[in-house]
Specification:
The protein has nine helices and seven strands. By secondary structure, the protein is of the alpha/beta class. Strand 6, helix 9 and strand 7 form a beta-alpha-beta unit.
C-alpha cells in the first residue's frame, strides 16, 4: 500500500523514452525492452565485432549488448548515463550483458574486468566513470575481480564525440599507461567500454596492456555503431 502511494506521487521514468514506468517495470518500460536492438554479438554475431579490430589488435573475444544508431533509444540510454548521472543504467546493462556472457564458454576464464579509464580531470568533471558500474556488475556475473588500478589515462583531450574519425585515431596515441602490471600478468582480462565507434580508444588500451607478460584480452561494450 505504501509503495503504491509512493509510486503515485513520485513516479519513475523509463531511462530510454522518459515515459512513466508501471510499478512492476524497472529502469526501462516494457516497450523499450522489446525495441532495443540487441546485438547478440557474444553468440551468432561474435565475428562481426571482432572484425572491427581484425589486423589491428589481437583479442580473444568481443561482445556488445546493443547496436548503436544516432537518435535512437540506445543513444538516449547512454546519454542519460554519461551526462545526466543515471548510474543505475550502467548497473542494469552490466547485469544484462553479464548474464549473457555467463552462458558463453568464451568468457568462463575471465579473471579480471577493467574499465577504459577517464583522465582524472574528466573524472572530476563528470563525477564518475560511466562504465565503472557496468564493469562491476559484469565482474560479479563472471565471478571475476574488478579493478581500475592498472590502466590509467595520462592525457586529457577534447571529448571524442566532438572529433572527426581521423582525429579520433591520432588523439589516442600514447594516451594510456600501466600501473601495478603484476596484477594482470598471465591473466585473461575483460576490457569494458560504452561504445565502439572507430575502435581507436580500445585499440590504444590493448596496445598498452599487451606489454604485460602472458595477458589475454577480451572486450565487452554497451553498444557498437554499425
Amino acid at each position: 500500500m505504501l509503495r503504491d502511494l509512493v509510486y503515485l506521487f513520485y513516479p519513475t521514468y523509463c531511462a530510454a523514452c522518459d515515459s512513466a514506468l508501471y510499478k512492476n517495470e524497472r529502469l526501462l518500460c516494457t516497450s523499450c525492452r522489446h525495441e532495443l536492438p540487441l546485438g547478440n554479438f557474444h553468440n551468432v554475431n561474435a565475428k562481426k565485432i571482432k572484425k572491427v579490430f581484425y589486423g589491428r589488435i589481437k583479442i580473444e573475444n568481443a561482445s556488445s549488448l546493443f547496436v548503436f544508431h544516432k537518435d535512437s533509444l540506445v543513444q538516449n540510454l547512454i546519454h542519460n548515463l554519461k551526462y545526466r548521472g543515471q548510474e543505475k543504467i550502467g548497473i542494469e546493462l552490466g547485469k544484462w550483458l553479464g548474464e549473457e556472457l555467463k552462458q558463453s564458454n568464451d568468457y568462463k576464464d575471465i579473471e579480471f574486468v577493467i574499465p577504459v579509464p577517464l583522465h582524472k580531470k574528466r573524472l572530476r568533471e563528470r563525477g564518475f566513470n560511466q562504465v565503472a558500474k557496468f564493469g562491476i556488475e559484469i565482474a560479479k556475473m563472471l565471478n571475476a575481480q574488478y579493478t581500475d588500478s592498472v590502466l590509467k589515462k595520462k592525457a586529457y583531450h577534447q571529448k571524442q564525440s566532438k572529433r572527426g574519425k581521423l582525429s579520433r585515431w591520432t588523439n589516442t596515441s600514447e594516451t594510456f599507461n600501466i600501473q601495478n602490471e603484476s596484477l594482470l600478468r598471465d591473466k585473461h582480462i575483460l576490457l569494458v567500454d560504452d561504445i565502439v565507434t572507430t575502435g581507436a580508444t580500445i585499440e590504444a588500451c590493448v596496445h598498452v596492456l599487451k606489454s604485460i607478460p602472458g595477458i589475454k584480452i577480451s572486450i565487452a561494450t554497451m553498444a557498437i555503431t554499425e
